[in-house]
Amino acid sequence: MALKAMLFLFTTFLVFTATVSSKDEELKEVTYVKEPEPAQPPAKVPVYAPPPPVKTPPSQSPPKAPAYAPPPPVNTPPSQSPPPKAPAPVPPVEPPTSPPLPPVKSKQDCIPRCDQRCQLHNRKRVCMRACMTCCDRCKCVPPGTFGNREKCGKCYTEMTTHGNKYKCP
């Protein structure tokens, strides 16, 4: 149905343009004579001349570079450098001691600690679920967002999943 409507509109358009174009041909028979306009002189365009070349006096020619000659050998005694000094002893670096973690008494104590531990994890719900389980069983959550697992002891570091991967984040 839409094709028939489009075809009808197209034929109507063709008939209308054919009628208008035939009337244009009748109007072309009448011609109007246009009087020529007086010619205007062309506007002057400023022409810029290139700057004159700089002339150098012929008596002064650039000096020629001398051919390469190695410098004359100098007879000096070899310089003696002082013996190298031993590096200063470095005191042993002690790991920063953090205050002992307060004990976890209930599952409610685990929530803010696990939230802090898992805040940067890309799968936060999975991390929170594992952390809550580890916190409930071991009564500890390590500080920071990653690492420091040894701070919570053997229970936290050795807990594994069924696939033998570490469970606690």
UniProtKB/TrEMBL annotation:
**Superkingdom, taxonomy of origin:** Eukaryota
Q: What InterPro entries does the entry give?
A: GASA (IPR003854)
Q: Where is this region: Disordered?
A: 31-106
| Short name of any one Pfam family annotated for the protein | GASA
- What are the Pro residues biased-composition ranges? 38-103
Show which residues constitute the signal peptide. 1-22
Kindly state which keywords UniProt assigns to this record, in alphabetical order.
Answer: Signal
**Annotated family:** Belongs to the GASA family.
Give the PANTHER family listed for this entry: EXTENSIN, PROLINE-RICH PROTEIN (PTHR23201), GIBBERELLIN-REGULATED PROTEIN 14 (PTHR23201:SF53)
Q: What is this protein called?
A: Gibberellin-regulated protein 14
Q: Which organism is it from?
A: Quercus lobata
